[in-house]
């Protein structure tokens, strides 16, 4: 079977499974991925103006969540490492959700 993944990145809101309304944005100053393309490891640099809990998800191009991790982010710059050793070559979406905003970035894994 064939699947189509369509992502419309905007500042509009959507409802999560829990019923909470969150905004969707591509805030380049709040989230940086490097190196990109990456081989064995990538770093997520997340800048926040307050302490918060975040969920980081890696999603493949079919829309399947590859992995999800929860972190506590402190006010300021936070760095998280993504181990890509068991990840296949391809294009992925990295999603950071702090409960208020969902920030997304593309990551190319090139082995």
Strand order of the largest sheet: 1-2-9-8-5-6
Strand content: over 45%
Structural class: mainly beta
Main sheet summary: 6 strands, mixed
- What is the distance, rounded to the nearest whole angstrom, between the alpha carbons of the first and last residues? 27 Å
Average pLDDT rating? 83
Helix content: under 10%
What is the number of E strands? 9
Question: What is the CA-atom radius of gyration, in angstroms?
Answer: 14 Å
Number of helices: 0
Order of helices and strands: EEEEEEEEE
List the uncertain runs: 8-16, 22-27
Cα shape: globular
Description:
The chain is mainly β and 111 residues long. The chain is 0% helix and 57% strand. It is built from no helices and nine strands. It has strands spanning 13-15, 21-25, 31-34, 41-48, 52-60, 65-73, 76-83, 90-97, 101-109. Strands 1-2-9-8-5-6 form a six-stranded mixed sheet, with no helix packed on it. Strands 3-4-7 form a three-stranded antiparallel sheet, with no helix packed on it. Strand 3 (31-34) and strand 4 (41-48) form a beta hairpin. The relative contact order is 0.28.
